[in-house]
């Protein structure tokens, strides 16, 4: 009966199921970034330093990067639906308990648990979704599922931060945990059950790293993520330097609008125009950063630069995961876990290098840094006809 259901799903694109999966990536990114919006509250409540509070996000990301590959490999044979439900349970429990306890060390441990769940969830959910659609719709499935990530950053973060500021950070954490439980219950009823697959020597992480096309996609991941996040992590400093009218709220609103539009374009065109979209992603980043350099203090034009940047940023996750998934015939979960680990590692590199640049030079140095990384990314994408076809 379940096989018939999956085959029927493959014949027509299962929008409701994909939107449900998108809600998982939505709460996944919120679970990771949520402390960022209420750092002062957490510092005051737990009586900890700014660095200790920042570790609530840092250790989460480190756990995601470290555990993604080994745990994806270990759970390859587990039913995809049941694995996703376990991960949602981990997200919910870690957030709810973190909102109830007062011991910093315990909260850090709970954040690590959440990070481990994220390390498994990000690569496996795309592969799970791809199994439910025809091969010609793989890119579309990834785009819809990963739209939750963009929506979480552009819409979810302002919303949960407002809740945290109005009702307290503990209410924010517990509320997200309860919302995740609701998603888990709907997923238990609505998601189709699909078996795992065996991990072989040819589909191991080490075997995948021997494939030139996979390495090329990982290089594009490194260049694209470090270029984008090197500026995004310190966007407030950039906005302050160019004295943008409307401040950070205006910048994030335009950035979010651009991201949403590009996500919709990615949903429609990723399957047929992956290479063109990847080229456009790097090109738009170069153009937007160039506009900031030349017209950063010109009202209107500067605002348009943040919109263009959002257009470039929106499909980042979608395009890179779609690219790496095309390089393998089986064990897509493992391939996307390798790419996901490089993605998280790249965010850590971006934060460290950009922070160093910011301590020596002005915030505009981050803009030049993004352009310097985007140019080789653009060139590689242009000539990677076979890999991105």
From TrEMBL:
GO cellular component, one term: plasma membrane
Principal location class: membrane
Domain (Major facilitator superfamily (MFS) profile) ranges: 16-389
Membrane-related topology note: Multi-pass membrane protein
Entry keyword set: Cell membrane, Membrane, Transmembrane, Transmembrane helix
Subcellular location(s) per record: Cell membrane
InterPro entries: MFS (IPR011701), MFS_dom (IPR020846), MFS_Efflux_Transporters (IPR050189), MFS_trans_sf (IPR036259)
Pfam family, one: MFS_1
SUPFAM superfamilies with a match to the protein in the record: MFS general substrate transporter
Keyword Nucleotide-binding belongs to the record: no
Tagged with keyword Membrane: yes
Gene Ontology molecular function: transmembrane transporter activity
Transmembrane spans: 12-30, 57-75, 82-102, 108-129, 141-161, 173-192, 213-235, 247-267, 274-295, 301-320, 341-360, 366-384
Protein name per its UniProtKB record: MFS transporter
Organism whose genome encodes this protein: Aequorivita vitellina
């Amino acid at each position: 009966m379940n096989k018939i259901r999956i085959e029927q799903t493959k014949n027509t694109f299962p929008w409701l199921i994909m939107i449900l999966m998108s809600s998982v990536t939505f709460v996944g990114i919120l679970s990771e970034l949520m402390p960022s919006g209420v750092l002062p509250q957490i510092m005051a409540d737990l009586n900890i330093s700014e660095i200790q509070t920042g570790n609530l996000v840092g250790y989460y990301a480190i756990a995601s990067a470290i555990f993604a590959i080994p745990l994806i490999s270990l759970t390859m044979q587990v039913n995809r639906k049941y694995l996703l439900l376990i991960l949602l349970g981990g997200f919910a429990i870690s957030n709810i308990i973190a909102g109830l306890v007062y011991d910093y060390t315990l909260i850090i441990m709970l954040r690590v648990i959440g990070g481990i769940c994220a390390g498994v969830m990000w690569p496996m959910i795309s592969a799970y979704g791809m199994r439910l659609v025809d091969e010609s719709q793989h890119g579309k499935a990834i785009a819809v599922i990963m739209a939750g990530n963009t929506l979480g950053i552009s819409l979810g973060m302002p919303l949960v931060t407002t809740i945290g500021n109005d009702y307290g950070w503990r209410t924010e954490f517990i509320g997200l945990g309860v919302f995740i439980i609701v998603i888990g219950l709907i997923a238990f009823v609505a998601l189709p059950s699909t078996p795992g697959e065996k991990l072989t020597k040819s589909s191991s992480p080490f075997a995948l790293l021997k494939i030139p096309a996979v390495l090329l996609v990982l290089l594009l991941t490194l260049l694209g993520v470090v270029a984008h996040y090197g500026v995004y992590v310190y966007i407030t400093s950039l906005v302050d330097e160019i004295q943008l009218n409307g401040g950070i709220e205006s910048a994030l609103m335009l950035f979010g609008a651009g991201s949403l539009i590009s996500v919709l374009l990615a949903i429609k065109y990723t399957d047929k125009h992956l290479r063109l979209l990847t080229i456009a992603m790097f090109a738009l980043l170069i153009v937007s950063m160039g506009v900031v350099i030349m017209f950063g203090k010109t009202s209107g034009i500067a605002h348009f630069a943040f919109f263009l940047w959002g257009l470039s940023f929106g499909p980042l996750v979608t395009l890179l995961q779609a690219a790496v998934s095309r390089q393998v015939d089986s064990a897509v979960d493992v391939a996307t876990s390798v790419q996901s680990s490089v993605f998280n590692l790249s965010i850590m590199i971006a934060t460290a290098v950009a922070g160093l640049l910011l301590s020596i030079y002005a915030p505009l140095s981050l803009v030049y840094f993004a352009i310097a990384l985007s140019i080789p990314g653009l060139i590689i994408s242009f000539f990677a006809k076979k890999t991105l076809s």
